[in-house]
Automatic annotation (TrEMBL):
Protein name per UniProt: Engulfment and cell motility protein 3 isoform X8
Stretches with biased composition (Polar residues): 458-469
Domain ELMO stretches: 130-336
Record SUPFAM superfamilies: PH domain-like (SSF50729)
Region of interest called Disordered, as start-end residue ranges on this chain: 456-476
Domain of life: Eukaryota
One Pfam family, short name: ELMO_CED12
Amino acid sequence: MNLMDASVQPLALRLLESVTLSSPALGQLVKSEVPLDRLLVHLQVMNQQLQTKAMALLTALLQGASSTERKHMLDYLWQRNLRQFIYKNIIHSAAPLGDEMAHHLYVLQALMLGLLEPRMRTPLDPYSQEQREQLQALRQAAFDPEGESLGTGLSADRRRSLCAREFRKLGFSVSNPSLAPHPCLNPGLLCSRGLESLLSYLSLFPQNSNPAQDLERVPPGLLALDNMLYFSRHAPSAYSRFVLENSSREDKHECPFARSSIQLTVLLCELLHIGEPCSETAQDFSPMFFSQDQSFHELFCVSIQLLNKTWKEMRATQEDFDKVMQVVREQLARTLALKPSSLELFRTKVNALPYGEVLRLRQTERLHQEGTLAPPILELREKLKPELMGLIRQQRLLRLCEGTLFRKISSRRRQTSCGSAACPLTTRCCSMGTWRRVPAHPPLRAYLSSVRMGQGSGSATCSPQTMSQDHLGPSDQPSLLPAVPVADIKALLTGKDCPHVREKGSGKQNKDLYELAFSVSYDHGEEEAYLNFIAPSKREFHLWTDGLSALLGSPMGSEQTRLDLEQLLTMETKLRLLELENVPIPEQPPPIPPPPTNFNFCYDCSIPEP
């Protein structure tokens, strides 16, 4: 009998599902004859096939019920701990989740989130005393945490002004330039709903200003107000911090809480397809919606804090509101696509996706769309790198030949490396070596024989030509230090390793010089001497350290080299692929055909072709 039950029950449940979906009247009959408790018994067995058919019948009954009946049914199922059982024993079961069960869980999630649709479609009613009190509760939670009454002892005008200012800090649009009467001032409606209650509410605000107008648009309607209230009540410290932090910023840099909450609620409804009919084949349910109660409101609490974090990362202003919402949409969509198993895991993953990471992912996807990251293109880029690195190396060495103007290093505690005692405004000119007549186009390194430094107060850079005594007048010649042969250079030092910044202390000005300081150590007899430099800019620092590294045979690893190489690779690759525009590039090379079975063939070239 047990074996027969195990084989018959799934078939019976499947027949009941078909009957329920075929006719609403028969569906009501099945609902009356098959109570929910019996379905729960079948869901809690360890037979996966029986669980799947019971879940199919349950979703069919929920789909055939009205909105009110569906809400009562789901509330009853949740009270019987169905959500916890699904999360622990079905989603996290040791057995793999089948496609049919995944579809039914998607339908159940859609029906569960669909309970929010009536609130999403309902605008705020200014005649509702409950909704007016909820708006006031939002303001009091942010600015009157101890429950103090608004403007105690103040005049009516002062009280209205204070209330409008606080709602404005909350991000509501409390100023309406339109002089058209509000719909709530319809005389017929006033007589039927009560004039006294409405006027007591409108008396809190100046003329033509009412924060309730922001919630009259549907969607999100009252659902946005529910989210804001849930956030203020279940995360009061985060709510107060959000509002007070933004109200203390400049007007153009503050993130409006109410406007952000309204747009974020619309965004979440779009991402979760609230109000849309269920797909017949979709399986993309999110396990975190079965991990806890009030999952949608909890998701909003995480998302609104993410929006504030992204706003600060982008240093956004009011004009950038739509751009921030686009980034937040991408952050939420990417994280939801990962299907995190819990809300805490969702919070961790979405906070690990800052604005900079979103930009990087966008660039990577753009490169994939352009085919730049296809294996053949990457192989081409690798083949081009040596040639382009040689071009960059040649440019760096030419830059050293041209010379650069460096400021003289001055200190009360020590002299500069060249022993000069000139004033702090005295400058240094440095260039690479002297020219020699050499065969046509030898390697550039062949005629870079020495490093020479000069002292002077002029502003022109010293080039190999100006370093020659034949081209300088008596008053223009800088005092030249002895040339340092490149062969005597031992190492290139940068940052804190340089001797002229090593003993400077920890002042902020000295810390700023660390990124621009470099030194050349060389043999001076039996002692080690240094040529010390402070580059005038970060670019000059990269150019000179790259050039000196090239002279010493070391790799050029500066950020400027990486940027130049990437730019040259991109340009050269695009030029070589001009003829392949709109031609798909295969991921793998075409296969080599197998060799023939025999090589007993020949071709007589003397026979003319027809």
